[in-house]
Amino acid sequence: MAPKGKDDGDIWEDILSSLQSTSSNRGNKTLVVLGAASVGKSSLIARLAGVRDVTNISSGVGLEFSYLTVKDEGDLVGRIGVYATSSKHFLPHVLTKERLSNCVVVLMLSLCEPWSIDDQIFYWSSSLEQHMKDLKLEDKELATLQHSIADRFASYILPESEGDQILLPVPEGALTTNIGLPLIVLLSKVDNITNLQKNYDYDEEHFDYIQWYLRKFCLEWGAGLLYTSPRENSNCQLFMDYICHVLYEMKFSEFAQVIDKDSIFVPIGWDSPAKMSVISEGFNKFNAEGPFVEQITKQVDTRQKRNLKGEDDQLFLTRMQAVLAEKAKSPSAQHKNTTEAGSPTKGTKTPPPGEGVLANFFNSLLQKKSPVSSPSPPPTGQMLPIPQKPKIAKTNSNPKSPGAVSPRAVSPNPLKPVSPVPIEESAPVTEPATTNSAEEPSKRAPTKSTSFEESAPAKRVATKSSEGGPAKTKLAKTASGSKMPAPGAGIKKPGIQAPGAKRAVGAKKSLPTPKK
Fold first, then answer.
1. What is the C-alpha separation between 157 and 278, in angstroms, rounded?
2. Does residue 102 sit within a domain?
3. What is the largest CA-CA distance in the chain?
4. What is the rounded average pLDDT for all residues in the chain?
5. CA end-to-end distance (rounded Å), the chain
6. Which domain CATH number covers 289?
7. Distance of alpha carbon 226 from alpha carbon 3, whole angstroms
8. Element (DSSP H or E) covering residue 78
9. Is the Cα dihedral 173, 177, 178, 183 positive or negative?
10. Could you give phi then psi for residue 421, rounded to 5 degrees?
C-alpha cells in the first residue's frame, strides 16, 4: 500500500531518482582534436565511433562535431563530445570556461611530412597559450587546473602496481610549461614509414630523432604521446581506452612502448630525461642540441628524381641552333672572324673540331669506291684529279723486245703531260752466259755493294744487246768515279711492259757451254 500523503506520481519520481543516484553515468566530457588539414582527424573519429572502413571518409571543413558513447561492461558511463578543427580561430567556441575541467586536447600531427612537425607543434602550442590568456581566468581557477595536471603527472604508476598511489616529485626538466589542460600528442599515418624509408632515404636514426623530439616536447608540457594509423586501424582502440582513462578514471592496463617505431606509446607521467637520454646517446648524424628544422629537412621524393623528363632532341637542337646563330651575330664573333680572315698566316677560318670531323667522315663515305663497281664520272664542270703512282723504268723480260724502256719523269700534277727523257746509246754489251739452274745458287758470285755520293748524280744509259735482245741499263760514271744504279735496274716483273718499248724479233738467248 502506498504511503499516506503521496500519490502514484510521487512514487515513480522517487523510483527514478533512486535509479539515477545508483547509475554509473559520470556526465559528458569534451575531446578537442587540433591538427592541420589532411592529417587524418575525420578518419580517426570514425574509427573511434566503430566505423570499419574509413577509406571513403570525407574531410570536414571548418569545425566538425561528433560524439562517442562510453560504456563499461554494458553500462553507460557517459558521452564524449568530439570537436575537430584545423584553425585556431575556433578555439573560443570549443574551449570555453565551463569545459576546461572536463576536456582533453589532442594535438594531431602527420608522418607524411615529418619536416613540418616542428612548425605544427609551435603553431598549436602558441595558439593554446594565447587562448588561455584570452579567457582571463581567475588565479584560483587557473591554479586548480594546473594543480590537477601536476597531480596526474606525478601520480603515474605502472599497471601491475598495487596499493596506494604515492605522489613522486616531478623530475627536473619536466612540466616546465603548464597551461592547465591535459594534452596528448598524436602522431598519425605511421604507415608512411615504409614510404619514407624507400623514397626519402630515411633510416632508423631519423625515426629515433623524431621520437626523441616529440618526447622532449611532451615531457616539458606534461603530455602523453601515441603513434597511430587510422587507415590500418593501428593503436586506435588503445587511444580510445586511454582517453576514457584520462576523462573518466577508468581502469587502464597498458604499458609504455618505446621500442617499435610504428607503435610508440608514452603515457602522461611515465617519461623522464634519463629515459630519453638512451635515444640521444645513440645519435651519429643528428645533433640533439640543434634545431629540428636543421636535422629533419624537406627532401625531394626519389621517384621524382628518377622520373625526370628530358627535353626532346629536336627541340634541344633547335634551341642550340638559335643560340649559335645569336653568338654568330654578336660583335665579338664578327670581329674574331674579320681578324682571322685578314691574318697572313691563317688563310681560311678553321672549322670547329666537331664539324670538321663530321665533314671528313661523310666525304670519305662519298668518295669511297667499291672494288667491283667502276668509278663514277666527275660532276659537270669539275675535274677531279686522278692519283697516279710514279712510273719507274724497268727492264723488259720479254726476249723479243728489241728496245729499252725510257724512264719518264713523274710530274707532281697528274693533269700535266710528262716529257720523255732522251736515251743515250753506247756500245753493245754481250750478255754473260748463265750456268745451270741447279748449280746457280751455289756458284753465283756475290754482288758487291756500290757506294754512292750525293755530290754528283749518276747518268742512266740504256744500251742494246748485240744479238738484238732486250735493252740493258748501264751505270754512268759520276764525276767522282763512283757508279749509281739506274732506277728499276735488275727488277723484273713478268707481263709488264712500259709504253713505247719495242718488241725484238728473232732475239735468241745464249746457251751455256757444256762441260767435258
1. 21
2. yes
3. 187
4. 75
5. 183
6. 3.40.50.300
7. 58
8. strand 75-85
9. negative
10. -90, 130
Rounded CA-CA distance 245/311 in Å is: 60
Judge whether residue 370 has pLDDT over 80.
no
- Which amino acid belongs to residue 265? F
Residue 458 placed within a domain: no
Q: Total domain count for the chain?
A: 1
Measured CA distances, 329 to 318, 333, 349, 438 (Å): 17, 7, 16, 82
Mean pLDDT of 55-80: 88
110: three-class secondary structure by DSSP: strand
Q: Which of 94-98, 109-113, 412-416, 478-482 has the lowest mean pLDDT?
A: 478-482
Tell me which residue range forms the domain holding 155. Answer: 24-301
- Distance, in Å, from the CA atom of 432 to the CA atom of 443, rounded to the nearest integer, reads 14
43 belongs to a structural domain: yes
Cβ(430)–Cβ(474) below 8 Å = no
SS (H, E, C) 189-244: CHHHHHHHHHHCCCCHHHHHHHHHHHHHHHHHHCCEEEECECCCCECHHHHHHHHH
Place of cell 572502413: 53
Model pLDDT for residues 309-342, shown as the tens digit of each residue: 677 888 888 888 888 888 888 776 555 555 555 5
- Dist CA 116 CA 292 (whole Å): 10
Return d(Cα 67, Cα 76) in angstroms, integer.
14
Concatenated DSSP letters of 14-59: HHHHHHHHH-----EEEEEEE--TTSSHHHHHHHHTT-S--TTPPP
Residue 246 lies in a domain: yes
Instruction: Give me the percent of the chain exceeding a pLDDT of 70.
Output: 59
CA distance 109 to 39: 6
